[in-house]
Amino acid sequence: MRLHGLLFTVMALGFSMIIGCGRSEKQTEPVKQPGGPAQTPAKMRGTIALSVLTLTNPFFKVIGDTMTAEAAKYGYDVIVVSGDFDAARQQNQVKDFIVKRVSAIVLNPCDSKAIGPAIKEANDAGIPVFTADIACLAPGVKVICHVATDNYQGGRMAADAMVEALGGKGKVAIIDHPEVESVILRTKGFEERIAALNKQPGVAIQILGKWPGGAVPDKSFKTALDILQSHGDLDGIFAINDPTAFGAIAALEKAGKAGQVKLIAFDGQPEGKQAIKDGKIYADPIQFPDEIARKTVEVIVKHFKGEEAPKEILIPTALYRKADALKDPTLK
Fold first, then answer.
1. Superfamily of domain 46-149+289-315
2. What is the pTM of this model?
3. Rounded-to-integer distance, Cα 295 and Cα 77, Å
4. Distances (CA, A) of 322 to 24, 196, 264, 283, 325
5. In DSSP terms, which residues pair with 166 in a beta bridge?
6. Does 184 score more than 60 pLDDT?
């Protein structure tokens, strides 16, 4: 009897482990609500893994948080990790996702070209890959769908704002971060729109060049100081995101040129909007990271249902000026 009982117990445990290791679906325990009966959540269908560029930028935290909440509605867990601007680190994260046999991988590539081999590994493992905000530029890999801001359109909008801020004339510098596709599109849109506007009467904007700022405040601060020292007659700066603009603001204040050099940024983070209200940034083409996250989850779910996904979904920006900030109830 004891032997038979022991064998039965071992078989039962083994069967339980097999079920527990299954990748596709798992049933969660009922949750008892305060003051009410227990409710059973939706059956868990799998895990979506997300590697963002950095979680120090609130933009990517919004993407992670929104994607987690949205995916839960469809029965998916979400793993969120940060690549921290490190392409090698992000490649290792993708390897870990493959080992975990996640249902889908979403990437904000730290380097749009260097991410290629990692995506190829996921392709070979049969795990669908999606990109959000930043696209992959590596050849020979398969990305199901790219969901992002229309960065080219936003760059053109930034150019319009710069011409407006400078009254049509002046010398401008771009603080850049060309490692990622989204910024490449922003600067391209900005440069091409400035070139087109310069053909109009009364417009004469000279772009002095592009300088790397790393998309972070500390490096952008040093870059902006170098630009100001080399170009004392600078009239404007296009900062490719709000963190870059924060570094430029600090440099302008240190150089005693706050208010003299007009600053156009990109993002629309709460701190960026506050800086617009305070007159430190002239305007931002603002992005909608929550919408990027929702659309990404939506297209993943459609893909799992066997529906054909579009190769790209672009979300337009909106230009945010001081007049908008003054009416914004979320600001101080």
1. Response regulator (3.40.50.2300)
2. 0.83
3. 17
4. 50, 26, 12, 7, 5
5. none
6. yes
